[in-house]
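[audit] Reproducing an earlier prediction to check determinism. Same input, same settings, fresh worker. If the tokens differ from the archived copy the diff job will pick it up downstream; this log only records the rerun itself.
[audit] input (177 residues):
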Amino acid sequence: MNEEEFDKHFNSKPERDIIENKEYLMIKIDNKGRSSRDFPMTYKCFEGVDSVMSADDLKSGTPVFVERVSGEENLYYIRMTSSTYKDKNYFTMSNGSGMRLIFLGEKSSAQPFHIGYSRIGKLEIRPSIGGVLDRDISLEEQDGKGYLISYPYRMPSSLRTTVDIPRLHSIVLVEIE
């Protein structure tokens, strides 16, 4: 996908609901709905785990599928179309109460995500733990790469890596046609 195609898809308002088994790209936007010019999400193997992170360019984002959690409205598992390890392509979160890394794992350990329209009309993604939306997701910059992480809305100061984590952007789904 080149920049022109990216802008065309990104700037269009969704015309229909979430479609299972349709390919999407995940991108970061600012709180006004504009692309931050970060690249789509992909994965990279690090110490035996596929971490979800921003791609190196517009063409190397890895598409994802969404699968509705049985019996739940607006809760979905997110599955990348490829991964380093067979059967480990579902979004999963590390354990802990502070910042958590989002990585690829088996479906049995998949983390449900709430996907719904944001106030700017984009399909926004947020982690849901026990059906409660008390966490957010962001890109944590490390060694020039943006790793997808989850953090609590009200993180205790002792767990923060920065002074504060303002909600200046969102991670959204963009349809691939």
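[audit] rerun output stored. Observation attached for the diff report: Residues 3-11 form the longest helix (9 residues).
[audit] end
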